[in-house]
Amino acid sequence: MAAEDFQGDLLIGMAQLLAAAGLGVWSPTLGYAAGATGIVLDATPETLDRAIQLSSYPVADDPGFRSDLIGLQTIVRWGGGDPLPSRRLDEQIFQALQGRTHFVLSTGVHVTSCSRRSGATLGIDSSKRWSRSSNYYLRVLHPTTHRL
Fold first, then answer.
1. How far apart are CA 11 and CA 72, in angstroms?
2. Domain holding 101: CATH number?
3. For residue 146, is it within any domain?
4. What is the C-alpha to C-alpha distance for residues 84 and 137, in angstroms, rounded to an integer?
5. What mean pLDDT, rounded, does the chain reach?
6. CA distance 134 to 97
7. Dist. CA 89–CA 1, nearest whole Å
8. How many Å from the N-terminal Cα to the C-terminal Cα in the chain?
9. Which residue range(s) make up the domain with 70?
10. Measuring CA to CA, which of 133, 134, 139, 145 is 20 to 30 A from 114?
């Protein structure tokens, strides 16, 4: 785990976790085959009709504790004009993450709890791809130089 890119390690670890659960393909250097559900970080390429986009953001940091609350936003996109496949993929991610506790990601990030806090449809784009967003709060152990 690289101290200088804690949230990057968190996102890569979550991408690998979702790929291991069979929800998509994590292939940041090789690209994605047609019809694959690509797992990407921070932005979804226009060329992907099916995708899981992961982004993170700080929610609460306390210098007196070793843990932080970090938001994990998942955005799913599914082409074809039918909103139900995007709902199903969002639900599959929910099943993989909701209520999960005390686990260590492949990148070394320790997650003590995970819970969804909000979600919504993002509608349909001009290419007839439906998107949905869900926001999870992750309690993570985040050691820093000046913490206990």
1. 8
2. 3.30.2000.30
3. no
4. 25
5. 93
6. 11
7. 29
8. 19
9. 3-141
10. 145
Q: What pLDDT was estimated at residue 3? A: 58
pLDDT digits (tens, 9 = 90+) for 89-142: 999 999 999 999 999 999 999 999 999 999 999 999 999 999 999 999 999 998
Asked if residue 109 is part of any domain, the answer here is yes
Q: Give the Cα separation of 125 and 25 in Å (integer).
A: 22
Question: How many C-alpha atoms does 72 have within 13 Å on its Cβ side?
Answer: 31
In which element (H, E) is residue 20 found?
A: helix 6-20
Q: What is the model's pLDDT at position 87? A: 97
The sign of the torsion formed by the CA atoms of 26, 59, 109, 22 equals: negative
Please indicate, yes or no, if residue 148 is contained in any of the structural domains.
no
Sequence-distant (6+) residues with CB within 8 A of 118 are 134, 135
pLDDT at 4: 78
Domain count of the fold of the chain: 1
Among the listed residues 57, 30, 39, the one whose alpha carbon sits nearest the alpha carbon of residue 96: 39
pLDDT at 15 over 70: yes
